[in-house]
Amino acid sequence: MIQLIRGFKDILPGEVELWQAVEKVARELLEDFGFKEIRIPIVERTELFARSIGEDTDIVEKEMYTFPDRKGDLITLRPEATASIVRAYIQHRLYAKDPVQKFYTIGPMFRRERPQKGRYRQFYQINAEIFGVQSGLVDVQLIFLLVRLFARLEVADVITHINSLGCPKCRPQFKAALSEFFASVSDQLCADCIRRKDRNPLRVLDCKVPACRAAVADAPAIIDHLCSECKADFDEVQNMLQKLGVPFVVDKNLVRGLDYYARTTFEIQTGSLGAQNAVAGGGRYDGLVSELGGPDIPATGFAIGFDRLTELTGLAASQFYRKPDIFVAALGDKSRLLAFEWICALGDEGIRAELDFAGKSLKSQMKRADRLAADHVLIVGDDELAKGEAILRNMKTKDQASIPLDGLVEAIKNRIY
Ligand code: HAM
Predict the structure, then answer these.
(1) Tens of pLDDT, residues 53-70
(2) What pLDDT, on a 0 to 100 scale, did the predictor assign at position 199?
(3) 104 Cβ closer than 6 Å to some ligand 1 atom
């Protein structure tokens, strides 16, 4: 038997109802905050991700599903959505009428990481991006939106971590201070970090190897090296979060796994998912639009790990499972053909109706209706046909009523609603 690929998964009925419910709550909230949906391709040119996420990141170095297409062009299954949304924003000149644009997208991403609880090779994200606003207040709005979403989805035990990564003006000084520090602890760093420490020292702060984590505990903090504009921006973000009553911690080592960030970055972390503690992450990426060939337009956004969200929500799939409204127990060929017409008409009226096609006994059809937890059963056999009426049984109250065959669909619709 052919099995699915490691790190990939099926989301089956019984579980998918929860995914649908979570998605509905997220979409409604995002749309209330003015985000419009954008749908982007699953596959892009490899170069798009390499240039935006960064050549030295784990994602680009080790985790992308990259392959040549039949003509030999390198293409990649998207490991994230931000780069594609930026590409679309530039390609379609979405800034031309109004640079301020808010987009969201929901869909699968692919990273070839080691699978474990909360970490998959195909996982889903809910992404939100805001273009054209320089103010840190929109970073606060994004964090506020996340916190409200988690509250609506009854996700407990989450903490907002924030940091500022500075800007091209203050970051070079900080990088130099970091490189100097890493030189003093280089004997404790992993091979990747030794390689990255001079080229891209921020990546060392993000390394997951325990020895590296211990070595960087005393590393200089970028918030101590911010220029006056970045400092004012980060102060405003913190003040406004406080005003909105959003609890947060400043986490000096939060650099995120992608290179495009500047100024405020954030992550919503949980203690409930073991090693995979980030449920959502994001931040400002002011330089990316121009780096990818667009105008100099600031941007910021986040992505939520959808799989992790469904593992953390206090909602349960069973709350959303839609049972049949009615099970039609038809006995005999003539009744079954008539019943078939009814279930088609009922479905069209928004009433979920099920029918047994196999010609089973009444007892076994009633058993199946029970198994499906149908609210009502409609019984029709030769006797009922002769009388010109069918029997409708309410499975909860056990009440029974005779329904004339003439106008039956309308009568059932009126009774069920
Ligand atoms: P990211 O931190 O790489 O950011 O991913 C965002 C979220 O996706 C993570 O916090 C996590 O919940 C989920 N996630 C990542 N990898 C996996 C995995 N292998 N299995 C399950 N869940 C996973 C980004 O992707 C940025 N594009 C976010 C962003 C948008 N920044 C600005 N705009």
Answers:
(1) 999 999 999 999 999 999
(2) 86
(3) no
Q: Which residue lies with its CA nearest to atom 12 of ligand 1?
A: 305
Looking from the CA of residue 115, the nearest atom of ligand 1 is 19
**Residue nearest (by alpha carbon) to ligand 1 atom 30:** 302
Question: Atom 13, ligand 1: which residue's CA is nearest?
Answer: 305
Closest CA relative to residue 162, chosen from 283, 62, 275, 64: 283
Point out the residues of the chain with pLDDT beneath 50: none
Quote the ligand 1 centre to 284 CA distance (angstroms): 14
User: Ligand 1 in contact with 129 (CB < 6 A)?
Assistant: yes
12: left (phi over 0), alpha (psi -120 to 50) or beta: beta
CA of 283 to the centre of ligand 1 (A): 12
Task: Sort strands 299-305 and 43-45 into parallel, antiparallel or unpaired.
Answer: unpaired
Give the pTM.
0.94
